[in-house]
Amino acid sequence: MALISIELESKSIFMDISLAPFVVSLIISDRLRKHAKANSLPEQEKQLKYGLYFSLSLVAIEAIFSILYITRWFWALYLLALVVIPLKQNEFRALRMFIVAFVPFVVVSVLNDLTEAISSEFFKSTETYFKNASTLTFIWMIAILFSQNRQSKAAEKERIKRQKEDEINRAIAIRKVELEELVAERTAELTQQKEELEQAITELRATQSQLIQSEKMASLGELTAGIAHEIQNPLNFVNNFSEVSKELLDEMQAEMDKGNTADAKQIVADIKQNLEKISHHGKRADSIVKGMLLHSRASSGQKELTDINALADEYLRLAYHGLRAKDKTFNAKFETDFDESIGKISLVPQDIGRVILNILNNAFYAVTEKKKLSGNEYAPTVSISTKKTDADIQIRIADNGNGIPEKIIDKIFQPFFTTKPAGQGTGLGLSMCYEIINQEHGGSMLVESSEGEGSAFIIHLPT
Ligand SMILES: Nc1ncnc2c1ncn2[C@@H]1O[C@H](COP(=O)(O)OP(=O)(O)OP(=O)(O)O)[C@@H](O)[C@H]1O
Ligand SMILES: [Mg+2]
Questions:
Q1: Domain boundaries, the chain
Q2: 301-463 maps to which CATH number?
Q3: Taking a C-beta distance cutoff of 8 angstroms, is the pair 105, 156 a contact?
Q4: pLDDT tens across 144-161, in order?
Q5: How many C-beta atoms lie closer than 10 Å to residue 23's C-beta?
Q6: Model confidence over 19-44: pLDDT tens digits?
Q7: Would you say the CB of residue 358 lies under 6 angstroms from ligand 1?
Q8: Which of 418, 431, 447 to mutate to test the pocket of ligand 1 (most atoms within 8 A of CB)?
Q9: Mutational test site, ligand 1, from 219, 362, 397, 435, max ligand atoms within 8 Å of CB
Q10: What would the pLDDT profile of 203-212 be if each residue is shown by its tens digit?
């Protein structure tokens, strides 16, 4: 069989078989079968398997019977079928170049064999052409296979590159989904936290207004105690004077019975004086009761022309007696220095009263605390003074208590800030004062303090 059979069919090395077509058919069929298998082409795979059995049978027959002159016809047919059929089938399109590499070889081989078989005379005269053609087909085959190999390597490289890119893209997509889930999770957590915070704020607001209410109630309690004390005083006068007047009336009766008109007249004058005193103290009690009613009512928020000195004086007494009513041992000196030139100014009396009361209570608390730790030489003193300037009215409330430590002085106006033991202070006093002075009255409030020596709160009210 052609060039290769001439060389390979030497009986010294091989038996008399068609080695070249066999090897070539094996190469082609093996590649085709692999392709059929990889692309799930069971029908083609089966046909190729039968082809393989056929080629093996041919080799076996040649080996046993040495009838190359017959079998070469079958080889020619088989090889032609092996290249022509797949070339026509779409399923083997990818292997087209591979098959084409073998086509010239197969064609020349077949022609060579057939020429030899039909006319050995003619074959001998053309043998050189066949040899050259065979060499060319061989070179063609190697060249095509070589280039195909390079192409498929490049394609493989490209495929691996694409596969890696795909993997990276897939990993990115998975990460993206994970991140999206994470973001959704975090968003849900944040939304929940936000809702919880809003809930907490709502609850805090409710608690705050409750506390403000109880702060008002507490200051009302202190006020009531002070007021009760204040009423006690005029009531004592009223009781005493009416008692005395009753006795005087008895005396007058006796004098009149005796016909002692001059003495009876003198007694009438005394009784009149007593009744005036009763009336005076009755009116005082009345005004105190009115004041109490005023305080027990919620602030009207209405500004009224008010005598600030009288208001300050009244609250100083109320604070002092309120505290004494609570604690009998409580004792402090209080000093006043009122600027009489102020006259009446426009303010909300209940609210300014509340401010003064809280600052005074804080001051009395501070001096009491200091007293507990000091000896007899310490004289707890709280003073209140008013002053009119060109720009405003100032109310100054000072004490000689322990003062306010530097590190907390910034916080004392904050709501709920207190250094008092639980149950003794809500920490709302000064924040309420701040609100009333700044927001309600457009004024301002300052604190001065030196640790261990005392504090002073100065209220500025616009005129
Ligand atoms: N005259 C003062 N001397 C020393 N410390 C003071 C004085 N006034 C206020 N403070 C400090 O400021 C804090 C806050 O006072 P604030 O009146 O706001 O609340 P509180 O008196 O503690 O409680 P509440 O007034 O609600 O009963 C006090 O706890 C105290 O530490
Ligand atoms: Mg207070």
A1: 2-118, 301-463
A2: 3.30.565.10
A3: no
A4: 889 888 888 998 999 999
A5: 12
A6: 888 888 999 999 999 999 999 999 99
A7: yes
A8: 418
A9: 362
A10: 988 887 777 6
